[in-house]
Design brief:
Radius of gyration: 24 Å
Largest sheet: 8 strands, mixed
Number of helices: 17
Distance between the termini: 45 Å
Mean pLDDT: 93
Shape: elongated
Number of strands: 13
Strand content: 15-25%
Bound molecules: zinc ion
Order of helices and strands: HHHEHEHEHEHEEHHHEEHHEHEHEHEHEH
Helix content: 25-40%
Length: 396
């Protein structure tokens, strides 16, 4: 498909200083970019949703490439567990807001770029206003409510949405831009049931993976801005790092799409946490929501100290059990529970735990269906234990 181009004429009146000519010389000597393309980049604005795994390569390369105005939306603080892949941030940044750390790094790479930061959670109330003044929106989020929100806001504003997602060894990228091609809803009309698709925090991610997917997104953004090449519009690129294979799938605009179809029923932003069946990251643990019995880490510690013979069942994966475990606990991963629950004593008082309390709540609910009655879910999981009982325990 021919490259749809962004509103033209934006480079009129833009000039490059002597220093900028030197900085961008490897672009300027390519006919596909040239002075005109570089001026277009300087005149352009790109909004990055998320300054994490995907946002890192995106920010670094778009700043280096000379995109004139870069917006960043994030509300997180740099954590040690980010550093394995979020190369925008360094060890001395741990504890700082990601936006501060990102801004420092991007301006160090290219002080010619204007970096605008929005320390907020993207919501239906602020998305349209935030997106309004940017040419391209890049989705670097890691959750479904925000992904649908970014998609819908982009479609309503007719702005290109450069999409990427990552999990373990697999990545995806596309450009959603109705009416030139489909939107995210054409590809995935319904969100997955809550909890069915694990996040990177739950399932892990190869550190280099967001580097590659983010670079694909950055490439697509630059192509759209300078109006060259074949964009990923109408194509979903899938990357399998383990097999080192790229595959491409055609995605067509769905005429029945409720958002970008011929007779749209979604004409304004909705409640995306409700749509996706979650209430965001502060969702109450399912145990509390469904009245499953719980025990706090302090109560568990006190009972163990009194010598009570509680059975502690760890339903995490073996890799997690290797990182840290509560002394005396028995490992039986959640996925194996349906085949192996007969190994457990249904009468014995059992405390079930995982990392943060979500999987163990599922395990408790499942075991109750199998007739177990003497079960308690450890509230907050082993992370709460590491925070409040054994501070020498490594966290992950
Ligand atoms: Zn659509």
């Amino acid at each position: 498909m021919p490259a749809p181009s962004l509103p033209g004429g934006r480079a009129d009146g833009v000039t490059l200083s002597q220093q900028e000519v030197a900085r961008y010389s490897r672009h300027l000597i390519m006919p596909e970019v040239g002075m005109e393309g570089q001026k277009r980049l300087k005149a352009a604005s790109v909004l990055l949703i998320g300054a994490g795994g995907l946002g890192s390569p995106l920010g670094l390369y778009l700043a280096a490439a000379g995109v004139g105005r870069l917006g960043l939306v994030d509300f997180d603080v740099v954590d040690f567990s980010n550093l394995q892949r979020q190369v925008l941030h360094g060890t001395p940044d741990v504890g700082r807001p990601k936006l501060q750390s990102a801004r420092d790094r991007l301006l160090a790479i290219n002080p010619e770029v204007k970096v605008e930061t929005y320390e907020t959670r993207l919501t239906s109330a602020n998305a349209l206003q935030l997106f309004e003044s940017y040419d391209i929106i890049i989705d670097g989020t890691d959750n479904f409510p925000t992904r649908y929100l970014v998609n819908d806001a982009c479609v309503l504003l007719r702005k290109p949405n450069v999409y990427g997602s990552i999990f373990r060894f697999d990545g995806q990228a596309s450009v959603f831009w109705p009416p030139h091609g489909p939107c995210y809803r054409c590809l995935y009309p319904e969100p997955p049931p809550p909890g069915e698709v694990p996040s990177c925090a739950e399932g892990g991610v190869l550190g280099v993976l967001p580097g590659l997917v983010g670079c694909i997104q950055a490439t697509e953004a630059i192509k759209l801005l300078i109006g060259t090449g074949e964009p990923l519009v109408g194509r979903l690129l899938h990357y399998d790092a383990l097999a080192m294979k790229f595959r491409e799938f055609r995605v067509r605009r769905n005429p029945k799409c409720p958002l970008c179809g011929d007779h749209p029923t979604i004409t304004k932003l909705i409640d995306y946490e409700q749509f996706c069946g979650v209430r965001g990251q502060e969702a109450p643990a399912p145990a509390a929501a469904s009245g499953l019995p719980e025990i706090t880490v302090e109560e568990l510690k006190a009972r163990l100290d009194r010598g009570e013979k509680l059975f502690i069942l760890d339903v995490r994966n073996p890799e997690e059990h290797q990182i840290c475990r509560i002394a005396g606990s028995t490992l039986l991963p959640l996925a194996e529970l349906p085949q192996r629950f007969h190994e457990l004593d249904a009468e014995r008082e059992t405390v079930v735990h995982c990392k943060s309390g979500m999987r163990s709540a599922k395990a408790v609910a499942f075991l109750r269906q199998q007739g177990f009655r003497n079960l308690k879910n450890l509230k907050g999981g082993i992370l709460a234990w590491a925070d409040r009982v054994d501070r020498s325990m490594p966290k992950y």
